[in-house]
Amino acid sequence: TAQQTTVTLSADKPSGQISKHIYGHFAEHLGRCIYDGFYVGENSSIPNTEGVRNDIIAALKNLNIPNLRWPGGCFADRYHWKDGVGPKGQRPSIVNTMWGGVTEDNSFGTHDFLNMCKLLGTEPYLAGNTGSGTVQELSDWVQYVNFEGKSPMSDLRVKNGQQKPWNVKFWGVGNEAWGCGGNMTPEYYVGEYRRYATFMEGKNLFKIASGANVDDYHWTETLMKGIPLHMMDGIALHHYSFPSWDKKGPAVGFTEQEYFETMKTALRMDELITKHAAIMDKYDPKKKIALVVDEWGGWFDVETGTNPGFLYQQNTMRDAMIAGTTLNIFNNHNDRVKIANLAQCVNVLQAVILTNKEKMLLSPTYHVMEMYKVHQDATLLPVVVKSDDYVVGNEKLPAVSVSASKDAKGLTHISAVNIDRNKSESIEIILSGAQYKTVRGRILTSAKADDHNTFEKPDFVKPAEFKGANLKAGKLTVKVPPFSIVVLELE
Ligand code: AHR
């Protein structure tokens, strides 16, 4: 049965730009994200450029990834960047105490990462160590990476083979300072932030304060109150989706209840952004400070037989639902959310790419990111959605999520997600304030909610042409199957 949802799209009320940076990614020294993921080393038989897999470079370039956060995560507050520069043979091996207790040989360091960002055509976002590091160490990193003239750190950079500075703009001042970044109180972190940020010197730095865990509104309030606005550019927020933190359940083969609970946490992103943004509005009514959701995504049990510290999980149509609804939420909050990072890019948590030796696959989440890239830097067109319910037991969620934008060429794109696991949604979109002649689109759908791609069948789930849109007299009707995503292009 098809249910009925109505949407009103106001094409004549453009509502500012959707920052492309909300389509950002995250690469931590965690499990097989960097080593045996992005980076296989110069001597690998897998085709690579400076040790980075060519197939990954090509796939990510196709997504136009706007920024990439590195080296953590929790690892960032354990990372001493000087270990990762200079001749590879002379770099110290350390223990990755955070993730799996494995040896970290530092063969992938600052030069490797920043040069990889060049290959990917993406902007680096470096997360600084304010947990186990020092003010001097972070101040030195900024100078090493960004200073053009002569200085101890820029001299060292030149000696290590990089003449020109990389001019990195995005800097995280610690990560999860309330937890793995040092178990600080917000009051204490405010003092730490002010000290570290003072000595991160240079032009055009975009400094991001370590932000709240989920609904810790006191954290956001304390930072907004305690850090002068001219000293920061963004405040982070982390929020993951799962049936419950203590019982995450399998990534494949989940029950409908687990699916529903996961979508409930994912959709909660809207409430979290609204409430954190309301606090920010009190102190920053001009919205100078960005809300930076630099960790989001689905978090499930690791695949059987893999290292529990490596957070390797499959990626199904449920993950596609998390991605589609979350990105719609970010688009619709474009006035405050300016940067976001899916956790994580390769082989960790809700990855867009999985690898197995020489093989690589693109996950359903990859395809969502690819379908949604049309929204990057486009102008938001507001939508009002009157959604039907997705009901399980005594609980319900809105079945449909929508966002819309107009790009530089004048094309309008509508992304619509139906999370209902059982029913199709017939969506009626009233197009007000513009006249459209044609509609075309693509759909990501599959027979089962836990359908996914495998190394044997890497193209099992992939976008297809969508033929279910009907445009007539300013009204668009679209039929979206259960747990499916449609992106339409109107001209
Ligand atoms: O993304 C995995 C971990 O989740 C990150 O390292 C940390 O910041 C968060 O708790």
Please give a handful of descriptors for the protein shown.
Immunoglobulin-like; 491 residues; alpha/beta; TIM Barrel; six-stranded antiparallel beta sheet; eight-stranded parallel β-barrel; globular; binds alpha-L-arabinofuranose
Short description:
The chain is of the alpha/beta class and 491 residues long. The chain is built from nine helices and 27 strands.
Helix-residue proportion: 10-25%
Q: Structural class, from helix and strand content?
A: alpha/beta
| Global shape | globular
CATH 2nd-level architecture of the largest domain = Alpha-Beta Barrel
According to CATH, what is the topology of the largest domain?
Answer: TIM Barrel
Strand content: 25-35%
Give the biggest sheet: 8 strands, parallel, barrel
- Record the strand order, biggest sheet: 2-5-8-9-10-11-12-13
- Counted up, domains total 2
Separation of the first and last Cα atoms: 30 Å
Over the alpha carbons, how many angstroms does the gyration radius reach?
Answer: 22 Å
Number of helices, where a helix is a run of at least 4 consecutive DSSP H or I residues: 9
For the record, the CATH class of the largest domain is: Alpha Beta
The chain-level mean pLDDT equals: 97
How many β-strand stretches?
A: 27
Q: Can you tell me the residue ranges where pLDDT is under 50 for at least 5 consecutive residues?
A: none
By CATH's scheme, which homologous superfamily of the largest domain applies?
Answer: Glycosidases
- Distinct small molecules bound, one entry per kind: alpha-L-arabinofuranose
Domain Alpha-L-arabinofuranosidase C-terminal: 294-484
GO molecular function: alpha-L-arabinofuranosidase activity
InterPro entries: Alpha-L-AF_C, ASD1_cat, GH, Glyco_hydro_b
Protein name: non-reducing end alpha-L-arabinofuranosidase
